[in-house]
């Protein structure tokens, strides 16, 4: 049974003003020893430190570089505490709101239309998927694999055989299908455009908590509950009430399971840090084909650096970036997909999550070179 709400009732709902970050700063602190690491952990208990890198307090350790956002009203207190303890830090971003607005630094040729050089809202992305299917019906099809908690569609594009101008892509698509999920966290992505540019989780409601959302990349069924620090709904890295509890995670998991026999690789794209990661995140043990994954990652990062000298580090998630549980990468690997990689795209923290649009095209160009190498390697070395 469905219920229809009177239009008048909807119209009277008060609009929520978008979150602003005027005067917020992003600090980078280089921790020299365990004492300094503990000072940051103590500050996180008394002040609202929004960790950008690593992604949570419990990953903070000696000899680590830590990036975090601090509100305008708390920045003076935090900076004074760092100064008093003779801790070296730099201000990466002096005003987060200014940086949010400066992100959009590419002029629009056709306002309202999708652009490969700009950040596109969800409606533009959906329109673009429709255009691709209409323009290339023999090459591209769109599959709806599920819906989000707010009933937005989850679309996967399937790219198959083509005979186009690009010989390498023609060869790759002739031998392999590509399934592309443009946006995994659709609800959270929409919220980041309309209400809070820094929003990361999805938009599901949590029982017995006023805090909204689950970190979808902590919600996969692999060592899901191995880190107790991920069980707080108010944390950015909240794992959810159960593995695959979120509609988005369940839809992606079901889709991969149903296509498992034909899937040779699983590759995800995140930001930021300039890293190419592979399993494992939940343990320091190395996967059986570690040497092969490391070899592929090394060459891929070398290839990536050729156009702009953008340098990536590579390695297992746990030792290269930080330990993590419930990630899609580890889950896909343990499911049987032995070539799984995660790109942490530009940059290394100067802009962090607020990379300007002017860096989109070069980021795509260099990443595509690495991606092509990985695909060619897999075609050559797997049956």
UniProtKB/TrEMBL annotation:
<keyword id="KW-0482">Metalloprotease</keyword>
<keyword id="KW-0121">Carboxypeptidase</keyword>
<dbReference type="InterPro" id="IPR057247">
    <property type="entry name" value="CARBOXYPEPT_ZN_2"/>
</dbReference>
<keyword id="KW-1015">Disulfide bond</keyword>
<comment type="similarity">
    <text>Belongs to the peptidase M14 family.</text>
</comment>
<dbReference type="Pfam" id="PF02244">
    <property type="entry name" value="Propep_M14"/>
</dbReference>
<protein>
    <recommendedName>
        <fullName>Carboxypeptidase B</fullName>
        <ecNumber>3.4.17.2</ecNumber>
    </recommendedName>
</protein>
<dbReference type="GO" id="GO:0008270">
    <property type="term" value="F:zinc ion binding"/>
</dbReference>
<keyword id="KW-0479">Metal-binding</keyword>
<feature type="signal peptide">
    <location>
        <begin position="1"/>
        <end position="15"/>
    </location>
</feature>
<keyword id="KW-0378">Hydrolase</keyword>
<keyword id="KW-0732">Signal</keyword>
<dbReference type="Pfam" id="PF00246">
    <property type="entry name" value="Peptidase_M14"/>
</dbReference>
<dbReference type="InterPro" id="IPR036990">
    <property type="entry name" value="M14A-like_propep"/>
</dbReference>
<dbReference type="InterPro" id="IPR000834">
    <property type="entry name" value="Peptidase_M14"/>
</dbReference>
<feature type="active site" description="Proton donor/acceptor">
    <location>
        <position position="344"/>
    </location>
</feature>
<dbReference type="GO" id="GO:0004181">
    <property type="term" value="F:metallocarboxypeptidase activity"/>
</dbReference>
<dbReference type="GO" id="GO:0006508">
    <property type="term" value="P:proteolysis"/>
</dbReference>
<dbReference type="InterPro" id="IPR003146">
    <property type="entry name" value="M14A_act_pep"/>
</dbReference>
<keyword id="KW-0862">Zinc</keyword>
<keyword id="KW-0645">Protease</keyword>
<dbReference type="GO" id="GO:0005615">
    <property type="term" value="C:extracellular space"/>
</dbReference>
<feature type="domain" description="Peptidase M14">
    <location>
        <begin position="85"/>
        <end position="378"/>
    </location>
</feature>
């Amino acid at each position: 049974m469905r219920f229809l709400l009177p239009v008048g009732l909807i119209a009277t709902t008060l609009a929520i003003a978008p979150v602003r970050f005027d005067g917020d700063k992003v600090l980078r602190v280089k921790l020299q020893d365990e004492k300094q690491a503990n000072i940051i952990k103590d500050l996180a208990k008394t002040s609202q430190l929004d960790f950008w890198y690593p992604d949570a307090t419990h990953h903070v350790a000696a000899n680590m570089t830590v990036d975090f956002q601090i509100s305008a009203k708390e920045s003076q207190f935090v900076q004074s505490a760092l100064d008093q303890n003779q801790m070296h830090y730099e201000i990466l971003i002096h005003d987060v709101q200014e940086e949010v607005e400066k992100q959009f630094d590419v002029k629009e040729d056709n306002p309202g239309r999708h652009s490969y050089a700009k950040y596109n809202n969800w409606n533009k992305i959906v329109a673009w998927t429709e255009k691709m299917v209409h323009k290339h019906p023999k090459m591209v099809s769109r599959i709806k694999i599920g819906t989000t908690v707010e009933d937005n569609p989850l679309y996967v594009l399937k790219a198959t055989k083509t005979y186009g101008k690009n010989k390498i892509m023609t060869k790759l698509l002739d031998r392999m299908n590509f399934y592309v999920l443009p946006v995994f966290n659709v609800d959270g992505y929409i919220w980041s455009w309309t209400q809070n540019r820094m929003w990361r989780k999805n938009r599901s409601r949590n029982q017995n908590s006023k805090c909204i959302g689950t970190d979808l990349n902590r919600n996969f069924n692999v060592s899901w509950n191995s880190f107790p620090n991920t069980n707080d709904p108010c944390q950015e890295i909240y794992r959810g009430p159960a593995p695959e509890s979120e509609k988005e995670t369940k839809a992606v998991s079901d889709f991969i399971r149903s296509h498992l026999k034909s899937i040779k690789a699983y590759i995800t794209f995140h930001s930021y840090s300039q890293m190419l990661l592979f399993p494992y995140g939940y343990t320091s043990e190395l996967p059986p084909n570690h040497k092969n994954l490391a070899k592929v990652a090394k060459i891929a990062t070398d290839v990536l650096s050729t156009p702009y000298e953008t340098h990536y580090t590579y390695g297992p998630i746990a030792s290269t970036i930080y330990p993590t549980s419930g990630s899609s990468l580890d889950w896909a690997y343990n499911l049987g997909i032995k070539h799984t990689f995660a790109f942490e795209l530009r940059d290394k923290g100067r802009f962090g999550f607020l990379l300007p649009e002017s860096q989109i095209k070069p980021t795509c160009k260099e990443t595509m070179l690495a991606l092509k190498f990985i695909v060619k390697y897999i075609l050559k070395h797997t049956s």
